[in-house]
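General statements about sequence and structure are easier to judge against a single worked case. For one protein, we set the task of working out the structure tokens from the amino acid sequence alone. The sequence in question and its structure tokens are set out directly beneath this paragraph.
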Amino acid sequence: MTMSLVPGESPVSLSEARGWLRMGAASDDAVIAPLLRAATSICEAFTGQWLVIRPGTEVLALSGGAARLTVRPVVAVEDVALLADDGSETVLGGGEYRLAVGAGGEGRVSVAGADGHARVRVTYRAGIADDGAGVPDAIRQGIVRMTQHLYDARDGTDAPPPAVIAALWQPWRMLSLGSPR
């Protein structure tokens, strides 16, 4: 599987993070901004969900004419193409594939007439909210606290992240068992 994903925006602003860290305006922005992005990525990895809706593209193996997308919650599929072994691709029309979204936001694309094709490229959009303000407050608070932990740990301390972060994110954690197919 090959995945090309656009990094998502953080639902927490730089000024919110600075306020939590009790820093003045624009103080250490060059340090805080990447920590905030890292904390957001850690949250998305922990929850198994993208926070702010954004596009993604995946190349997936077809199994029985279907492929399961790895990112959730899936909002919409924008483009589907069958990939041949010789590198050529056939872009499919809307009636030639079907998107099924499960209760947990997992997406499954079924392709009609995928005979002779082992892979499919799917471009789609996924995420919990349209913007940072729509992301649940507990997730946002966990990101702020993870940013603080990363900021404090920059001096080489080996302390684990506070347990409250996992507690804040746990209700949104999506786990899957076995293969993503």
In short: The mean pLDDT is 88.
